[in-house]
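Students often ask why we bother encoding 3D structure as a string. The short answer is that it lets us treat folding as translation between two languages. Here is a chain of 413 residues written in the first language.
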Amino acid sequence: MKLSWFIASRIGNGKKGRLASLGNVIAVLSVAASILVIIISICVSRGFRKEIMEKMSAFAGDVTISVMPPTGGADFNTEDYSLPALRSRQDILSLPYVKAVQAVSYRPGMIKTEDNIQGVMMKGVDSTFDWSFYGACLEEGTVPEAGSDNFAFISRRMADLLGFKCGDKATFYFVGEQVKVRRLEICGIYSAQLENLDKAYVLCPKKVVNSLNGWEDGRSSSYQILFKDHFLKDYHLRKNQIANLVYDKLEEGEYYRISGAVEDMSNLVDWLQLLDMNVLIILILMIAVAAFNMVSCVLIILFENISSIGVLKALGMKDSGIKKVFLAKSFRIVVLGLAIGNVAAVVLLLLQKYFKILSLNPANYFIDHVPVDISWWGIVASDVLSLAAIMAILLIPCHFISRIQPAKTIRVR
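And here it is in the second language, the structure alphabet:
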């Protein structure tokens, strides 16, 4: 094997004017460009998945526990649609992948200004609520302080639509047997780029919503369970595990519904899966392009070194040994291309990650920039897969070596 590497390192030396040198350059650049596209595609796809799944989790919870009353057609603001304190809460929190279990209450209403009326969904939260997502996308003001009882936390779309800014007092109207009015101070404005959701939801104190619904402080519309990570392949297993913990502590007459963001926002999940399919197609096409150019490069090297192959055969080297020589030469070219492509891809990804050079329309992509989530294991796996696939394909042109006859080729100059 050492002899094969030694001979491979000498092939092409001193032949600057020959076609093989240009072929080597093209092959290196082809491999570099292919692996660059593959790595960027994988990391951007991971970035989209991470951003979208985090938004889905923040708005709907990874898993949601709500009530299913036995009577149909009831007003969901009545106590039939409320949950008591969750008896399995501590059991769920003890699961290693659970980040938070937060109680929320809902009440539809309207917000009125001098010029506009907008329907809203009030989402009441308490001290169990995880504000990390909203803090990360906060544009103006602050997240509510612990113990705050008169705040409204709204989206940038709603603020622009109704002309609100932090510190303003907003008047909310709630229709029932009688019209109820609440005035809340806007403490913060966030931008999550989920147009169909954030333009309608207003976060406020849970006790405000409970008082509107006529519920005791300990009751809630639902419990949202947030995960520390968001892997679709683990979702159903985790959901079933949580459901078992909940159902084990149900009392007679209680009917709970276990759902989650994957079902409630299936359109976003389908969009992510379509994105993954596109990445797979790109992976196959880029490996094929790199392999095609490498095959061309190897054939050029073979044709320009026919006399050398004849000499090696005349000296007694077997066809398998000569194949190893040209595979070793190809391996050096592929590895060089992978190294260049890796460096270029990582540099571009880091620039995008920290400076957000490429922007997007959030109305179409749910985010205002191209997201990046660099996976070093993913990069290594891409390199190994690409290298293995290309080297396997290069076995095809190397079979021409067995057809070369020393008596005819040793005279070729």
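Translate back mentally: The chain has 16 helices and ten strands. Keep this in mind for the problem set.
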